[in-house]
Batch of 2 targets.
Target 1
Amino acid sequence: MRPFSKGAVKQLHRASGGVPRLINIVAHKAMMLAYGEGAREIGTRHIRAATADTPAARRARWRLWPILALLVCTGAGSAWALFQ
């Protein structure tokens, strides 16, 4: 038997952004929730609750925005310098 449902695994990946430490934190919280309920499988609602309780996991999906902004600014700065 798999401890995490397929949907829970997908949601865990989305919530953590693939960051190993966040995967561990969110998965641990979800397992504790399921244990407290006496559930034998961790479902998507457990992952949602664990994600809501983990501020870093809520921000994980936005981690690429600073990199994208840096690339745009660098490109704009290079274009400005080229045309001066």
Target 2
Amino acid sequence: MPTFQLFVFTILLPLISIAMLWRRPRRPFAGWLATLFLSTGITAFSVLTAPWGWFGLPVRYALVVLFVAALAASLRRPIPTEIKEESPLRAVVKVLLAFFFGGVAFGVLRGHQVPPGAIDLAFPLRGGSFLIGHGGSTAAANMHYAHPQQRYALDIMKLNSYFTRASGLYPRDLRRYAIYDAEVSSPCDGAVVSVVDALPDQIPGAVDAKNLAVNHVVVRCGDANVTLAHLRRGTVAVRAGAKVAKGQLLGRVGNSGNTTEPHLHVHAERNGVPVPATFNGEWWVRNEVARR
């Protein structure tokens, strides 16, 4: 999604809806309630689903504070002497938009439900704060949900000191992404099933749709295969058939293959069937932060 569209849905729309609530007195009640629904739905959509690695986590929390402040201001605003009822059509449109945006947000909340049969793995990154770009058990929380083998996959980015994933909104220099070249370690004691280490890193935005396998390592963890993908060429430190210990270095994060920017992709599967995975006993969902 272009940067301008991200800005509109992530920041501008929530601010507009919060401003509408701020200015709205609590009477007439039906119009106020419709505005509250609208602001709640759009703000929840932004807070739960927007890619906060772009604009920084502090902005996310600021939206929550502004929403609470707007609600308090609206409740305290003097009721006008002349009350003008809101158009029913306008109120209905607000409620419908609230249900649309709020429904997506609710889908992210449902993504916190851990599916049955989850295996537990060690988190494969360390030395910082890591933002879950995609993860969870619903389509709203996880873009991989529709994929037959990757339904419960994680896309993981690292946050820098400004709580963003990169220095700049969408830099072309791979070194400006906090996760680039980060060490990737084995999530379990197991054996290496397969390795690819020949594909070059892509310039962010230049997707290599022909090489979906990408540079990766597949580790056999119990009876499941765990794939760790989008590794930097020449950094894979293991070979197929080798035994590995939990925490052992496998490679480093790159931007190879079908990816728009540096991140680590992780998913587990068993005979082609997706397997949910917790990491150190925790189930990670979109926009959560893992500190390691």
